Amino acid sequence: MHAFNQPGPDNAYLAKHAELLIASYLHWTGKHLLPQEADLDRYRALYNAPYAIVSHNTAADPIFNYANLAALSVFEMDWATFTNLPSRKSAQPVDRAERDQLMARVSKYGFIDDYQGVRISSTGKHFMIREATVWNIVDAQGLYYGQAAVFYHWSKL
After folding, report:
1. Which residues lie across from 135 on neighbouring strands?
2. Cys-Cys with 152: which of 10, 19, 51, 88 at CB 3.0–4.6 Å?
3. What is the domain-level CATH number for residue 65?
4. Exposed/middle/buried for 93, CB within 10 Å: 0-12, 13-18, 19+?
5. Per residue in 82-103, pLDDT tens?
């Protein structure tokens, strides 16, 4: 088990990781992940955003290490379950080759903003993600921490 702490007031909503997500998104896309008015409490705003945000680590078989409440709801998982899930398992085996190509494009270019694909929840429900942005998580020195995704649009299949 990987046991990542769930974001909350006691850990400032995983401030260090949340800042990496926010800063990396701006670095690669030139866009803000959160509305500017969220600056005062942006880590809590990230966790409570009405759109899905996820990330995975740098392991050989990357494990999810962050999901905001919207993502947990879409994937129908609690924090502990989600943060023990290899990210490749968020897609069905038939969709994994497509997912692997996506991750290779992100690794090469830093981000993509045109992803769509089918994912599966913990209860077996399929849903389509549309217009997702996937980006490399890097710090100010360019050290790589994994990859993240944000998706604003999804629909049940």
Report:
1. 111, 148
2. 51
3. 3.30.450.20
4. exposed
5. 999 999 898 877 666 777 787 7
Asked whether 42 and 62 are in contact (CB, 8 A), the reply is no
Would you say residue 106 lies in a domain? yes
In a domain, 4, yes or no: no
Structural domain total, the chain: 1
Q: Which of 65, 57, 69, 68 is nearest to 83 (CA)?
A: 65
Do the beta carbons of residue 129 and residue 146 sit within 8 Å? no
For 107-157, write each residue's pLDDT tens digit: 889 999 988 888 999 999 999 999 999 999 999 999 999 999 999 999 999
| Domain extent for 101 | 9-156
